[in-house]
Design a protein that fits this description.
binds 3-phosphoglyceric acid, 34% helix, alpha/beta, 526 residues, binds nicotinamide-adenine-dinucleotide, seven-stranded parallel beta sheet, 17 helices
């Protein structure tokens, strides 16, 4: 049974689901040293934001196949290292959207009505009503930075409370903003016009310290800031200064540059600052959602199936994946075949998708073809996760073309691998029953069902040649399962593909290639 390490608190629903297919060890309080020590035993690691999955951890995890983040942000995972190592990283992109959006709204309302401060004051024996006079959000401007899943839900709820939404999101279309009833503005305008500013964007080198002394200075003195996105987007020292100096009216933070937050300039701000310990996703509902979402993906990957929300391979909706799966297998088989024919260094791979395939996302098919192409050289070290990187590191140029004309098959794939001196090509298609066919090799038309062991010859189309190859195979006790010959011209060049029951014994290829009329012979293993 595969072994899964769960190193952060995860809802029981996810643990139970994984328990059906794996041994699950829940170790939520591991030190970094303990994690490093035990990770080699595990096939999968399931985490939230608490575990730091560093390069060292990934490199020590020699059996790891998948890292599952029960939540959205994967900034605690060294994704590039995981990708290089061929480890799938999955998350739950939508499981905690509502929870995080509602927490942002809760913080906005708490800031407006001083709920935590009033609660604390009352419990300390005071009945101070004047001090906690609040402000209404009704008719106020809410500036949303990042109008993605969480930002959009915040926009809907805030609009229902009568707020006007200004939004900044450089990757959002005007059409989507119009649909959401939000006014798309630039950041300068958002900062200067907003009464509330809520952050719902990822932390990247560009967004680090987006809220800093200079941007804080551009805000209204009545502005209130909410950060439920990621620590580090707000410069915490600059915010503490601005709050103490009364440059803005308040702030509420759920996330911090260093978590857990232990020492901070923020602790010196007495009045108008609310802090919560990264609670955005902490609702019962969200925790069940993300646990099940990620446990299902870990289960699938451990069973050899693709994941639906991988962050380091193209994600596909289950219904699209279902349709594409036979083509992915075809692309991988053709890639493997053309890789063995081209041999040695490959400079470029031309991937042409024809017929109905021209309408689909080509990326997964290209990756499958690359996986097949690199398999003869890299064996199990190449997979769907690292195939593109491995190809790039080898300098293989990818050329993609699409041709929607339907010819003999509803959808077909053509691969051309260019080596240092020559190009080799293969075409393949699926029949109505989804059975694979190799439909040409080096443009010689054939119709071959790919099998595990095949002998392929390039030869002159002349009497006696097929018999000669048959006798050589007989001499070496090789059993032929099927045979196909393809030619362009009578008595010109031809190709022959023999399916054989076992790999060829040593010496057969040499003997076949020495026979008159044979140009080349290859043992192909798929
Ligand atoms: N506090 C929590 O517990 C909690 C819970 C869930 C998610 N999050 C965080 O909330 C954030 C948003 O999550 P989401 O699920 O809505 O993600 P999302 O990908 O759906 O949306 C993010 C949006 O930010 C936009 N964006 C990217 N760069 C930007 C930039 N430079 N300026 C403005 N906008 C930019 C993107 O175009 C996108 O629309 C993420 O940082 C996520 O990690 C926090
Ligand atoms: O990215 C996320 O999903 C949130 O930050 C939640 O993190 P958590 O799972 O550690 O609560």
């Amino acid at each position: 049974m595969p072994k899964v390490l769960v190193s952060d608190p995860i809802d029981q629903a996810g643990i139970d689901l994984l328990g059906q297919v794996a041994q699950v060890d829940e170790r939520p309080k591991l030190s970094p040293e303990e994690l490093l020590r035990i990770i080699p035993e595990y096939d999968a690691l399931m985490i939230r934001s608490g575990t730091q999955v560093t390069q060292e951890v990934i490199e020590a995890g020699t059996n790891l196949k998948i890292i599952g983040r029960a939540g959205v942000g994967v900034d605690n995972v060294d994704v590039p290292t995981a990708t290089r190592k061929g480890i799938v990283v999955v998350n739950s992109p939508e499981g905690n959207t509502i929870a995080a959006a509602e927490h942002a709204i809760a913080l906005m309302m708490s800031l407006s009505r001083h709920v935590p401060q009033a609660n604390q004051s009352l419990k300390a024996g005071h009945w101070d009503r004047k001090k906690f006079t609040g402000v209404e959000v009704y008719k106020k401007n809410l500036g949303i930075v990042g109008l993605g899943k969480i930002g959009s839900h915040v926009a809907n709820v805030a609009q229902a409370m009568g707020m006007k939404i200004l939004a900044y999101d450089p990757f959002l279309s005007q059409e989507r903003a119009d649909q959401l009833g939000c006014r798309l503005v630039d950041l300068d305008l958002l900062f200067s016009e907003s009464d509330y500013i809520t952050l719902h964007l990822p932390k990247t080198p560009e967004t680090t310290n987006l809220i800093n002394a200079e941007t804080l200075a551009r805000m209204k003195p009545t502005a209130r800031i909410i950060n439920c996105a990621r620590g580090g987007i707000v410069d915490e020292s600059a915010l503490a200064e601005a709050l103490k100096a009364g440059k803005i009216a308040g702030a509420a933070l759920d996330v911090f540059a260093n978590e857990p937050l232990k020492e901070s300039d923020l602790f010196e701000v007495e009045e108008n600052l609310i802090l919560t310990p990264h609670l955005g996703a902490s609702t019962e509902e969200a925790q069940v959602n993300v646990a099940i979402d990620v446990a299902e993906q870990i289960r699938d990957v451990l069973l050899g199936l693709p994941a639906r929300s991988a962050v380091n391979i193209p994600g596909l909706k289950p219904e699209v994946l279902e349709k594409l799966k036979p083509y992915l297998m075809l692309a991988e088989t053709l890639g493997n075949l053309v890789g063995q024919l081209a041999g040695g260094r490959i400079e470029s791979l031309d991937v042409r998708l024809q017929g109905e395939l021209a309408k689909t996302d080509s990326k997964p098919i290209v990756i499958a073809a690359l996986k097949g192409l690199l398999t003869p050289a890299l064996r199990e070290r190449v997979n769907f996760v690292n195939a593109a990187i491995e190809a790039k590191e080898r300098g293989i140029r990818i050329i993609e073309t699409k041709d929607s004309d339907v010819r003999d098959y509803a959808g077909s794939i053509r691969l051309v691998a260019k080596g240092a001196s020559e190009s080799r090509s293969v075409n393949g298609a699926l029949l109505a029953d989804k059975e694979m066919r190799i439909t040409s090799i080096d443009d010689f038309p054939i119709s071959v069902i790919p099998t595990q062991h095949m002998l392929l010859t390039l030869h002159r189309d002349m009497p006696g040649i097929i018999g000669q190859i048959g006798s050589t195979l007989g001499k070496f006790n090789v059993n032929i399962a099927s045979m196909q010959v393809g030619r362009k011209l009578v008595r010109g060049d031809a190709v022959m593909v023999l399916s054989i029951d076992d790999p060829l014994p040593e010496g057969v290829i040499d003997e076949i290639t020495q026979a008159p009329g044979i140009r080349d012979a290859y043992m192909v293993s798929l």
